[in-house]
Known about the structure:
By secondary structure, this protein is of the alpha/beta class. The protein contains ten helices and 13 strands. It has two domains: 52 residues, Spermidine synthase, tetramerisation domain (Spermidine Synthase, Chain: A, domain 2), CATH 2.30.140; 219 residues, Rossmann fold, CATH 3.40.50. β3 and β4 form a beta hairpin. It starts with a strand and ends with a helix.
Amino acid sequence: MAEWYEEAYHPHWRQRFEVARYVYRGRTECQEALIFESPLFGRVLVLDGIVQTSERDEFIYHEMITHVALMAHGAARDVLIVGGGDGGTLEEVLKHRSVARATMVELDPGVVELARRHLPDISRGAFDDPRTELIFGDGVQFVADTAQRFDLIIVDSTDPFGPGEALFTESFYANCRARLRPGGIVVAQGGNPFMERERVRACLARLGNLFRDASFILTSVPGYLGGPFLFAWAADDPDQRRLSLAELAARPLPDGLRCYTPAVHVAAFVPPPWLSAPAD
């Protein structure tokens, strides 16, 4: 009889993954950690009972949280990643030759160690890239205190409770804004728009209080709460979000991407009617 792992993130929704075998079960400095092999998703990373990523669908999440903003900016050299301990966002950022430095601030060293040991196909050597500056510490405190400035800030956080809760506050977003260079962009984990409508609207309101242009990037990640998924977008130049297909196609794009294309980029900013309608 098959064994199943059940995720109970939402009070009215549960999902189950068939488990071929458990790879790791234990605790890091900050949270419970589990890695198992799924016949469908490959190796799956779970933190405090919530699925974080899987080998088979991570490319969708990581390509969309990075390349939309990098292509929209067009000349980002210094990128800050807050969170992202599995290394997938870092790996996608470093595909852009224009990026001279990628600073990654991760609260939990244990997640990076687990990812390097058990999920190497997600980071693909990115932690050892000479352009990587890996800092273990509180991302909220780092953004509040640093004197560095960035062209792009990516908040690749866990969900808005436990260690990740402070990464969804207006004060944190305000500090992010203060660390951007002119023309800078913030992209952050936004959640499932179907099941977490109020969370999504609260995030948009906080960013809208701080930036001239606040919106969302829409995609679908199979392993996250049934699929639909948003990344928050914040910038001061609305034209960065309105680039045409022809303008994007003229910009250099890394080879070998499996989700992001200029056409997908344009479509990701077009919400379906149900997403714009009032919540039921």
